[in-house]
């Protein structure tokens, strides 16, 4: 039986990945490791804990000896590396923890993976972000865009991308990197824009909006990101990176308007929740616009399939019906 390692599988994207991947891959042992930070939730993987091919260990990837022991116990064929400190605001408050997890943690995994005698047919898949490219006014990010991270978060992710590339170039480590745009869907921690807005609407509290709300994000539904990752595991070329997006650029204020409209309908609200919007002081170094050009992965045969408005409505319904989790 082959073994697959998923890091950060109690987080938003990792848990959604496991919920889809574990049931479809009963012929593989799938090991999830997570240090259980505030952003993790064991509830998010409750659908897979009873699968006999699923194993979970509480491990901090920044602890080299714990990571190395794990790699000594299992011969992983594939590593899907999701674990990260992921919230930009926190990275402004405490950059060191971002360097520890995102840079040192990734390096510990690469180093442990590299110590296997035979790396043939193996893969280290590093999940990264479009934020490594900084902000763009006119063009879209592609695999050739320059790395220009603005926040300590994006700088730490850029650094981990560079380490992954460097291991490939120096040691021939089989890596693939994907840089994806902003994800949305169930199980996203309540600090991120979409859950923040829904929580405020449910609680009838101010919806905080940075600056003028004109910052543009390129949104992708979680299922499309996961289908792109599973596609690249099979079809991606070793040593290359892929930009993943689904052409849904919206300013923050426009997505908030949409969330208010849908939520008000579901909650049967009499007055518009958009009145709850409260503009607050902008975040330092706030990137104005992200935009993804996914032509490279599209040319291999992957395309997004989720309709944006339907996925947003499904997501809002999920948060409203699981509002206890938001608390
Ligand atoms: N959310 C997005 O929109 C988005 C977009 C592009 C790329 N990404 C990338 O995808 C990955 C997953 O993002 P997410 O949104 O699921 O993040 P998340 O914050 O929801 O989850 C991260 C998970 O990693 C775990 N973790 C943190 N530090 C750890 C450590 N030292 N050791 C082990 N586990 C640790 C946390 O406990 C948590 O369960 C990240 O690498 C992120 O950079 C996210």
In short:
The protein is α/β, with parallel strands linked by helices and 327 residues long. It has eleven helices and twelve strands.
Description:
With 327 residues, this protein is α/β, with parallel strands linked by helices. The protein has 2 domains: 207 residues, 3-Layer(aba) Sandwich (Rossmann fold); 90 residues, Alpha-Beta Complex (UDP-galactose 4-epimerase, domain 1), CATH 3.90.25. The chain is built from 11 helices and 12 strands. The protein has a 7-stranded parallel sheet, with helices on both faces. It has a 3-stranded mixed sheet with strand order 7-9-11. Strands 8-12 form a two-stranded parallel sheet. The model has no long low-confidence stretch (mean pLDDT 97).
Mean pLDDT: 97
| Residues in β-strands, percent | 15-25%
Distance between the termini: 40 Å
Looking at CATH, the homologous superfamily of the largest domain is: NAD(P)-binding Rossmann-like Domain
What tags apply to this protein structure?
11 helices, three-stranded mixed sheet, alpha/beta, 327 residues, 2 domains, seven-stranded parallel sheet, Rossmann fold, UDP-galactose 4-epimerase, domain 1, binds nicotinamide-adenine-dinucleotide
